[in-house]
Design a protein that fits this description.
Elements: H1 2-13, H2 16-19, H3 23-36, H4 38-42, E1 52-56, H5 61-72, E2 76-81, H6 89-92, E3 98-101, H7 112-120, E4 126-129, H8 135-145, E5 152-157, H9 183-190, H10 194-211, E6 218-223, E7 225-227, H11 235-244, E8 254-256, E9 266-268, H12 269-282, E10 300-303, H13 312-322, E11 332-334, H14 354-359, H15 367-381, H16 388-401, H17 406-417, H18 423-427
Parallel strand pairs: 1-2, 1-4, 2-3, 4-5, 5-6, 6-10, 7-9, 8-11
The chain binds 2-acetamido-2-deoxy-beta-D-glucopyranose (3 copies).
């Protein structure tokens, strides 16, 4: 009985209930346990005031994990998105938050539900923006939210360095994100780089609103390629499954020659989510007054990445090792222009993380652990029935790009993972 009670206790006060598919059952156990142990429910004497948090996105890769952490701390989340729910975010997030449907590619005043919600709200301790890909979205959001935001956290990218002239060859520093003053050079760099251009422009809007006195305190987080569980770009998983099924696929596992020696930055989804969570926790009020230690970290951009900077070839070899395929699978390099390359998505090389280490206590997970945990997640995900959509996407990808004999993919999945899906259902 004592043992059972301990278990219930950890269930109720840990994070298990929230993330579980058995939320209902879980709460039933918790309610019973609290009923039997009334002291526990009253043990908290500092009144807890949930933070009001508005999230643009919050249903994708980093967003889902971030929302989960904020929900575990009992904050009040309102998510604004087009309404797609990736992986199991519908279970993990949707059922615990308020959701407003809004497509940011249309003018924000068309999103009447959002504008009404903001107008009726007293304010937000934090806004977390995962989905601003154009400066117009940023301006629309800041205009709508004027005077109501304690802190604006913008998820930016290391791609911003692609359109800037770096005057050194070391990893990019935050201060390197300066557009060339020569307009011809600027245009040259921006050609074909609208993603980088628009993301940097969003950062610039945030900074301008702030310096002109009507924008909120902000933090821009510049992320390289993000890896970890529930990646909605599937890039890591594609490499992993390619290696795992290599005997059944025609396309040989290979990387472009250039990426044999080019180091890259990566960041772990878990580390990013935790850092966003910590920054939100630090911000105490949505009034614009700040406590003395706060201003130091705000109103600037930070690079976040793992300490290690593997090459693509090293990354694939490390995944291969985790899969126990080192003996049986050779990874080649190729000079062919059409060789698949899913990482890195930038050409400017790694980023320097010293600033985040100093000011944000950035202390990323060790690279080997990231590889281990991520590989384990996808090895399991392929067998999880409620990941139906991601699994089908993966199967179609293997069938379309890695072999001309789709049935071999089905056979590989059956023989390696002992699973049958897709094909069987199609026959019904
Ligand atoms: C969360 O905030 C919304 C909007 O202010 C409010 O209607 C709702 O009751 C809050 N929920 C909780 C659990 O505090
Ligand atoms: C390099 O660029 C940075 C940022 O644009 C600038 O602050 C710095 O003075 C430059 N250094 C040199 C040696 O040109
Ligand atoms: C690799 O081998 C280890 C040790 O035998 C085992 O625990 C692990 O499950 C294997 N991994 C895979 C993906 O087969």
């Amino acid at each position: 009985m004592a043992h059972q009670s301990e278990m219930s206790k950890s269930l109720c006060f840990g994070s298990v209930c929230r993330g579980s598919l058995l939320v209902f059952l879980c709460h039933l156990v918790c309610d019973f346990w609290l009923l039997a142990n009334p002291g526990m429910a009253m043990a908290v004497d500092v009144p807890f005031i949930p933070k009001q948090i508005l999230i643009f996105g919050g249903n994708g890769f980093i967003g889902t994990r971030t929302s989960e952490l904020l929900l575990q701390a009992d904050h009040n989340l309102t998510l604004v998105s087009r309404g797609n729910w990736y992986w199991d975010s519908a279970y993990l997030v949707r059922s615990h938050v308020s959701h407003i449907t809004c497509d940011r590619t249309t003018k924000i005043d068309r999103c009447s539900e959002l504008t009404e919600f903001v107008q009726n709200s007293e304010g937000f301790d934090a806004v977390i923006d995962f989905s601003a890909y154009h400066p117009q979205y940023m301006e629309d959001a800041l205009d709508l939210l004027k005077g109501k935001v304690g802190l604006y956290i913008y998820i930016s990218t290391d791609s911003v360095y692609e359109i800037c002239d770096k005057n050194h060859t070391e990893p990019s520093l935050e201060t390197d994100a300066v557009r060339p003053s020569n307009s011809q050079r600027r245009a040259e760099l921006e050609a074909g780089q609208s993603y980088a251009n628009f993301k940097l422009a969003c950062e610039e809007v945030l900074a301008r609103y702030r310096s002109e006195g009507y924008g909120p305190p902000y933090v821009s987080l510049r992320l390289p390629d993000v890896v970890g569980p529930r990646d909605s770009t599937y890039r890591w998983w594609i490499y992993q499954l390619w290696m795992r099924l290599h005997e059944y696929l025609e396309k040989k596992v290979e990387v472009p020659e250039k990426y044999e020696s080019q180091p890259m930055s990566l960041v772990y989804v878990e580390d990013v989510a935790k850092t966003i969570f910590t920054i939100v926790q630090k911000k105490s009020k949505y009034a614009s007054s700040q406590s003395p230690e706060e201003p130091l970290i705000f109103d600037q951009a930070y690079n976040l990445a793992l300490q290690e900077t593997p090459t693509l070839l090293e990354l694939l070899k490390d995944i291969r090792e985790e899969l126990n395929l080192t003996e049986s699978l050779e990874i080649k390099t190729s000079k062919q222009a059409d060789t698949i390359r899913l990482f890195p998505s930038v050409e400017m090389g790694p980023i320097n993380i010293a600033k985040a280490e100093k000011l944000l206590d950035w202390s990323p997970t060790d690279y080997k652990t990231v590889v281990k945990e991520t590989v384990a997640f996808y090895e399991n995900a392929i067998k999880v029935e409620y990941f139906d959509e991601p699994r089908k996407y993966m199967m179609r990808t293997m069938e379309s790009y890695f072999t001309s004999k789709p049935y071999d993919v089905v056979r590989g999945l059956r023989e390696i993972y002992k699973i049958t899906f897709g094909q069987q259902r199609d026959e019904l």
